Amino acid sequence: MATSIEDTVTPGPTGGSVGRGGEQSRARYPDSEGYVQRDGQRLFYEVYGEGEATIFLTQPWLVHSRHWKMQIHYLARHFRVLSMDGLGYGRSQRCREPRRYGAAESARDCLAVMDASATERAVIIGYSRSAQYTLEMARLAPERIVSSVFIAPFFPYTPSHWSVLTHPLAQSLSRAFRLPKTVHRWWGHMYPAHWREDYPEFVDWFISRCLPEPHSTKGIEDGVGWALEIDPETLTATAYGHVHRNRSTLRGLAQNLDCPVLVISGDRDKITPPRDARALARLSDGKLEVVCGAGHMLHVRKPVQVNLALREFVDRSLRRDPTVHSSGDGRPRALFVSAPIGLGHVQRDVAVARELC
């Protein structure tokens, strides 16, 4: 169906408190935001920065676009950045039709957001399940993809827990029976009946598995908060959306990628096996970046290595010289860390920060 732009807002170059009510302050606010309607559903998107090259941060499963908060402020210094809340998440419309959460439908949602934001071509960066959307976008509109990045990709090419959980028989069994948690740790959590009974417990379990690294309290708190913004019924619909799990289909989609490819994986990922990431990199003839000691939400917990890898890859795929396209005026920069314990310290640190700027 045709797309249409709705309620576009432009807060200005410095941004304001544009986000969701009561959200944490951001390192950078969007330069513009808006909605696009596709197939009767409203999708929310934001645009940061400017430049000839656009990076499109797509939507994964369970959490909305704020999970990219450690990437946006850095990438927007060098590129135009487009992000979206996928259908069912964040400020996009809630929908309970599983059909609308299939890989192909989600890819069409991404293309609609690109149209609405006047993005002709982009570097597509997907996380987890959104790897499936990138593969579908490459099938539907390869001319619109400059290059592709897959972070902790959901690419169930090798035998794993996903081989069971995404099997049609397994889905019907999960709907028909209340399986005891002792049958299998994943079975005990990854089925809709449990989500409806104790959704906060499932969210805490899943996000904690995404961040197994020590000292991840803040990341887990953020992830749990984002995940609790979607209701169990909507999440159930997203879970039953069609995803590719057939090996021959996955192999064909990966080999069809006619663009530079980067795959980033944490070697402690408990959600999507690192061997699947290696398979995707091999089949697509792409580069594999391994983040040692990192779990599934590696871009949240290890943002420096991920961000530097992203910028290097994008510059290389665009054939840009990073020394020419760097931001800033050449003056030395400092990382300013403040730990105020009183009003006087706050006033001092604000004054120092202003001078540094």
How would you explain this protein's 3D organization?
Helices cover 39% and strands 15% of the residues. With 357 residues, it is α/β, with parallel strands linked by helices. A nine-stranded mixed β-sheet has the order 1-2-3-5-4-6-7-8-9, sandwiched between helices. Helix 1 (69-75) packs across helix 14. The chain is globular. It starts with a strand and ends with a helix.
Largest sheet geometry? 9 strands, mixed
Strand order of the largest sheet: 1-2-3-5-4-6-7-8-9
Q: Bin the helical content.
A: 25-40%
| SSE pattern | EEEEHEHEHEHHHHHHHHEHEHHH
Oligomeric status of the shown chains? single chain
- Residue share in β-strands: 15-25%
Tell me, rounded to a whole number, the average pLDDT.
Answer: 86
Number of helices: 15
Distance linking N and C termini: 48 Å
Shape: globular
Alpha carbon gyration radius: 20 Å
Strand pairing plus helix content: what structural class? alpha/beta
Strands, count: 9
Task: Give a quick precis of the structure.
The protein is α/β, with parallel strands linked by helices and 357 residues long.
Which features does this protein show?
about 350 residues; alpha/beta; nine-stranded mixed beta sheet; 15 helices; about 40% helix
Write the layout of secondary structure elements.
Blueprint: E1 4-9, E2 32-38, E3 41-48, E4 54-57, H1 69-75, E5 80-85, H2 103-116, E6 122-127, H3 130-140, E7 145-151, H4 161-165, H5 168-176, H6 185-189, H7 192-197, H8 199-210, H9 217-227, H10 232-239, H11 247-255, E8 261-266, H12 274-283, E9 287-291, H13 298-301, H14 303-317, H15 343-356
Parallel strand pairs: 4-5, 4-6, 6-7, 7-8, 8-9
Antiparallel strand pairs: 1-2, 2-3, 3-5
